[in-house]
Amino acid sequence: MGLQARNTASRLPSTVNDLEKAPLVVDDVDSSDLIKDHPRQPFYKHPLSLLIGVLLLLLTTFITHQFDFEFPFPSPSKPLPGFIQEGIKQCEIIARPPPNPKPFDEKRKFNDRFVKGTKPTWLKNGTVWTGEKDGTEILYGADLYLDGGVVRKIGSPDELAAFVKDKSDVDEIELGGAWVTPGIVDTHSHMGVDSAPALRGSDDTNSLHASAQPWLRSLDGFNTHDVAFNNSIAGGITTMLVLPGSAGAIGGQAFTFKPRWTYENTPQSMQVEPPFVINTHGNGSWDRTDAWLFLKSACGENPSRVYSDTRMDTYYKFRQAYTQGKKIKDEQDRWCESPKTQTTPFPTSLEYDTLAEVIRGKVKVNIHCYEPVDINSIVRISNEFRFPIATFHHAHSLWSITDLVKQAWGAIPPAVAIFATNARYKRESYFSATEFAPKILADNGLSVIMKSDHPVLDSRFLVYEASQAHHYGLNFSQSLGSVTTHPAKAMGLDHRLGYVRPGYDADLVVWDSFPLALGATPKQTYIDGIPQIINPHVVQKPAEAQKIFSEGKWDKEITETIATRGETDLTPKKSAKNILFQDVAAHYFDNFDATTFENGRGDVVVQDGEITCMGKCVIEESDVAAFEVIDLKGGSIAPGLITVGSFVGLMDIRQEKSTRDGTAQDPLKEEGPVTDGILVRAVDGAQFGGRDTLLAYRAGVTTAVAYPISNSEFEGISYAFSTGAPHPLAEGAIQNPYAALHIALDDNSKSSISTKIAILRRLLLGEVDEKTELVEALKKAAKGELTLVVKTSKADVIAAVVRLKKEVGDKVKITILGGHESWLIADELAEANIGVIVSPARSYPGDWDSRRFLAGPPVTNHTLPSYLASHGVKVGLGIVEEWQARNTRYDAAWVYANNPETFTKSSALDLVSKNLDELLGLDLEGGKKGWVAYEGDLFGFESRVRGVKGYGNGQVDLF
C-alpha cells in the first residue's frame, strides 16, 4: 500500500519540549519504526554521496580563497594583516602606467599653485609667440587674460572684452606690441644646491661617498635662500629641473621647481608636480603621486676624475646598480601576483626602488654624457635594462652620432641639452664641440634644448644660449622652443608648461625686444599669474630690435664640420693684401672723419694690408683685378678687440695639466737663492694655436692678454699677443712681453687680505731693499712705469686699494680686475683715477665678495659698466674662462643694448679695445691693434666677421 500524507496540524507540539519528544511523522508511519526496520548507512560509505561531498569541499575552498569568505557560512571576514594591506597599496602604485596626462585646456580655471588674492591680469596688444604649430605661430596684437594662476583666454581685444565681465579688480597692462613668450624652462640647473653666494655651509651639489647613489635627492639640499632665484627670474626663468651634480655615475634624484617666493618658503612649496607629498588630509604620510620622478646620471671624465675610475669601472657600477634595481623590481612584481598569501611585507629598497621605477619607465633619466664611447655605453645599458632616456646633457659630440642615439630603448629618442659656445674646458669637450651642433641635431630629427648648468652659466641669460644657436643656424622657432616647449616636453610637463595656451600655467615673459635679439631683457616675468619684478626698469629698444631676423647661414662651415667630425682647421684658409670692401655703413676709428660715408654707405679700400681709403673710393680699372671684392651688406670696419681675464695663451684645455703652462712660483716663498723673489713672466710660457685662441681671432679678437697661472698674491707679469699668430716667434706675435704686474687680493691663497695689503704697502713705499725681480717691479709701479692690475671684487678690498694709492702717491697706475662691488665706491674710484675691468661682463653674485652686485635691467636702471662710466670711471670688459674670448664683441653689444643712454656704439667698443689698452698698460699703437671687417651690424647677431687684420701681419685674413 502506498504512503498517503494527511493533515497533521492538530498534532503539532505546543512547546519546544514537546517538539523534542514528538516522533517524526511521515504519513502514518512512526519514525521510530522506520529506524528499527531500515537502519541508515553512514554518509561517507555511500560512493555517490562521498563524491558529492568532495566536490562541495573543493567548491567551498575555492570560494573561500577567491572571495575572502570563511567557512562554515555565514561568518564575518577577518581584516587582512596590516603589512598586506600596505603592500596592496604599494602594488597599486607600481602598477600605474608611466605618467601621460592630457594637456590642460580652457576648462582648467585654477592652477594647483594659485595664490589666493592674486588679481587677474589683462595683457593687451602683445606679439605672442605661443609655441604652437611647431613654434611657428605668432599672434600679433593679441590680448591675454590671466586668472586663477592660468592663462584663461587669448584673443583679439573684442574677444577679451566679451570674456572679461567684471573689470573692477583686473590689472590692465598695455604691452604696446611687446613680445610675449612662455616662461623660460631650464632643464639643467643646480640652483638651490649649488647656491649663491657659494659658501661651504650651503654646498649640496654632490655627495662624494660613492659613485652610484640613486637614493639621494636634490630636494633634501635645496636652499631657499639662494640669491640667484630673483636674478634668474629677471631673465625670464619660470621653471627649472634641479639636478644633483655630476661627480658620480648616478648622482641621485632631481626635482622640478618654480623659482618664485612662496608664503611657506620651503623647498616642497616651490615644486612643480612633486612625485611625493605630505598627506595633510590624512595621517601625514609621505605619499607617492602620479607625477614623474627624475634621475641624474653622469659618465665620462667626471666620475673617472672624482672616484679614480676608468670608464670600465664606471659602466660596471651602472650595471651593478641597475641589476639591483631589476632585482627589487622583480621581487615586487612577484609579491604583487598574490599579495594576500604573502607572509612577509612588500619588498622595498631604500637604495634601489628608484631604479626599479626607472625600469618601469616612470622616471625621466637625465644623463651628463659627452663622447661617442660614453653615449654608446649608456645606450647599450638602456637596452640591457629596458628603460628610456629622457635627455642627454652636455653631449658635445652627440651631433656626430645621431643614428646611435635613436637606438636608445623606447619609442622616443632622447632630447639633447647643450651649451651654445661653452666648450673645450676638458678633453671630452675639446675636439668635436661645435657651435653648429643645434642646427645639425635638429636637422636629424632630435629635440634640441639649450641649458645653463647654473651656476656654470648664469641661468638668467639662458635665452642668450638660444640666441647664439639661432645665429649659428637653428631657425627661430626651434631656437625659442629650445628654452620653452622642448625642455617642458623632456621634463614631462608639456601638458601645463612651455606654451601660451588657455588652461596652461600663467608663466609668461614680456620682452623688451625680439627674444633672440642680442641683449633681449624681460620687461616682466609672470609665474603662476603673479608678476615677479617689482617696479621693473625697462629700456626702450629701437624698432629693429623688435624684428625677427633670419638664422645664420653657415652651410659651408657645417659641411666641413661634419666631414672632419668637428676637428676643423681653424687657421685662416684665405688671405689678401688688396681688398675692396663695398656697402660699408660705419667705421669706428678716431683717425677718420665721422662724415666719411655719404648717404650712409661707402667703400673701404685696403692696399698691402693697410686701409688707404674710406668713403667714395676709386680704383683704377687696370688695378681692379688685383683686388678681392667683398660686399659687407651694410657692415662696418672697427678696431680689433682685446680679451683679458682668462688664460688664453697659457693653456689649451683647462682640466688637462699637460696642456697648460703650470702654476707660477710664489715670489714671497723662500725657496732658495735662485727662486727667492722671482717674478714670473707669462710670456715665457706662451702657447699659440689653441682652439679657443683661434676662435677668438675668427670672432674679431686680435689681441689677448694673459697673466701667469698662480696661487699667490703676486701672480706675475702679463703679456699681450696676437691671437692669429702661428707661434711666439712669428712677426708681430708678441705685442707686449712685459705689460702689467698682476696682483690677487681675493681668496686664492691662505694669507689674509690685510696681510697682502701690508706687504704691498711695504714694497710700494720702498721699504724693502732686496734686489729681487719683485722689488724692482714694484719700484717701477710706484713711479707709474708699470701698471698694477689688482684682482678683486669686494668693495671693502677695493676701498683698501684706494687708501693705499693715496699713501703711495698719484703716480701709481692701478686697475681693478673683477670689480663687481666697485659701484659702491664709484666716485672714490674716479677721484683716485683707478679704472675697473668688469670680469665677467655681466655680474653674478657667485661668491661672498660679489654678493652686493648691480643686477642691471630690469632690476636696476644701470648695469655695472654703465654705472661706473656714468660716474667717471674708466671701464673695460673682461672674461673668466678661455672659451668666452670668442664672445667679446657680444659682451660689448650687450652693454650698449641695455645702456644706450650711457654708451654710444663707439664708446661701447672702447670697452673691449681702446679702454683695455689703457687700463692694462699695453701701449698698442696704430696698426698693432689690428682691425676687423664685419658683414652686417656688428652689434647684432645678424653680423659675422669677414676679414681680420692682425698686428704685424701684412695681409688680411678672410673668413
TrEMBL record:
Gene source species: Kwoniella shandongensis
Full protein name: Amidohydrolase-related domain-containing protein
Lineage of the organism: Eukaryota, Fungi, Dikarya, Basidiomycota, Agaricomycotina
GO MF term set: allantoinase activity
UniProt xrefs under InterPro entries: Amidohydro-rel, DHOase/Allantoinase_Hydrolase, Metal-dep_hydrolase_composite, Metal_Hydrolase
Amidohydrolase-related domain span: 180-529
Keywords of this entry: Membrane, Transmembrane, Transmembrane helix
Transmembrane segments: 48-67
UniProt feature coiled coil, ranges: none
Gene Ontology cellular-component annotations: cytoplasm
Pfam families assigned to the protein according to its UniProt record, in alphabetical order: Amidohydro_1
GO BP terms in the entry: purine nucleobase catabolic process
